[in-house]
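Posting this for the archive.
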Amino acid sequence: MSISLILYVMIVILAGSCVQSALGFGTTMITMGFLPLVMAYSKAMGLSIIMVSISTIFISVKYRKHIRWAIMLPVLIPTVIICGTVNLLSAKVNSDIMYLLLGFMFVAVSIFFFVFSQRIHIRPTPASGGVLGVITGICYGLFASGGPTAALYLLPAVEDKTDYLATIQAFLCVNNLVILVISLALGRLEAGDLPMICAGIIGMAVGTLLGLIVHNKIPSDVFGKVIYAFVGVGGVWIIVSHMM
């Protein structure tokens, strides 16, 4: 394993962790956009999940008093069930095609909510939570990336941005741990990947701390727009990186 590969992994995870702690999601959108360029898709997924699990656990514990469990549960329960099931079956799915479709979906979601976000508000009800939970579970199970669709449910429901950050991190944390167990059981990572994991942990720690500083400086009135813009940019990057 080359030094350049280890540094590449560290930088990618640092960037992803910074975005994650600033906006509430984003690590896997960045890592799964960049890491598959230099390693197998399954290995990139396993490495991404380990890193994002550590990051979400840290932020969830740090802001545990701000977690809005009552609002989160309607979307969390179906997501966990679908996520675990789909991830177990994902080894038989053509990941390249689904990954490309995910990019198009992110772009469509971003455009839709930029245009209609002032007119359409997703209420935190069991019905809306169930529908978005299924969609999020599929995205999470196939791509280890369900943050954008979860944000569409949680962002309008949680007005305070610190409460939102804590809630979505707890949501992601639970699902990350589910996929982490499955990834380890399927052998997506090996003992030889330990240098990359250690480098990733360093990058994750630095990125998380930087992201929390950025989060505190983002004005509340533009916070939602920043998130929707990031969803769109992430979708464009997935499409572009897939075609490179």
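Residues 3-243 form one domain. The radius of gyration is 17 Å.
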